[in-house]
Design brief:
It holds the Pfam family YibE_F. This protein is of the alpha+beta class. It has 9 helices and 5 strands.
Amino acid sequence: MRQLWVDHRQKFLLAIFLVIAGVFLMFFVSHDQSLYRQPIGRVITVHETSRRKTTDEFKNVDYQMTQRLTVKVMNGLYQGKIVTVNNRYSKSGALDQHYRVGQEGFLTQINHGRHGWSASMNGLKRDTILVFLLWLALSLLILLLGSAGARAALSVVINFGLLLGAISIDLSLQASHVVLIFSILAVIFTVVTLLLVFGANLQSMVAIIVTLLATFVSLGICLLAMMWTNQKGIYYESMQYVTQNPRTLFIAEILLGSLGAVMDESSDVVATIFELKRVDQAADFSKLFKAGMQVGKSVMGPLINVLLLIFFASTFTCALLYLKNGNSWGYTFDMSMCLGMVQSLAAGIGIVINVPLISGLAAYLLGRGD
């Protein structure tokens, strides 16, 4: 045990620090009601007052329930007041919320009547669980991957900030340059991420060049296919609540979706080729190229399947809703899966194109002197 402590002393100390930081962080976010402008209430008691069975024309059965909640106001002008909330919810929970004792939610319409204080509850306060998951992900990255994990986490934070900035610019320009804005964003994403992963060296330069090349080539192929088919079978009306040109927004989605998959593959292949060259200085172009192609073929299938699984998971609930309301499989696919399938196919094209490109360029740069 002592030897284990000596060998991994820094890891243990780091783990202890992260656990202590997590405890303090959880305590803070569970008592941060004063930071919110909107009143927040904590559920003290719950009583179910009614339960009613409902059946629609498609024989879908649901239950409508009503709760009477006793809620304590935690912040704002009415802090400390005990209010009564009547909450109607369904068992399916599609558009409403079932509340339990100890949960916190946002209050509206607080007023005083003949029967005391009353209010409405409009959704849960979810910052505690979100912060916990964020802390857990960051802690695992740092503990298991060390500085590489910290850089990966930093790249996520930076890219998220860049995405918010790009969206703000898009809105300020009234969505007049969507494709240009997100094309520039894709370049910045690639440069920032790969520089943080590999550092400022030849390895990152190769990965950046080929990632961008494969991404934009796959986007170009997708646009040509859409042009030749006159976009038949692409139903932009399924992009609900979009108030700008759905076609340009869809192109931006294809671009960013393809970029992530291609960048992942590029990192794997280029890291393998550079490591092979480091171990075997005599490796020539042919050997390096074959190694890159072999790695690319190995990760290509799982990566494409990951994209499809993510796509299926993102559309599952919507597709189920269409089917449960009497729609055919064809109409369900058109309205809930069509655009996601096109995005997955575009990313798959980028993944396939990327393998020979990244293998060839990396092998050429490292093997040209042999």
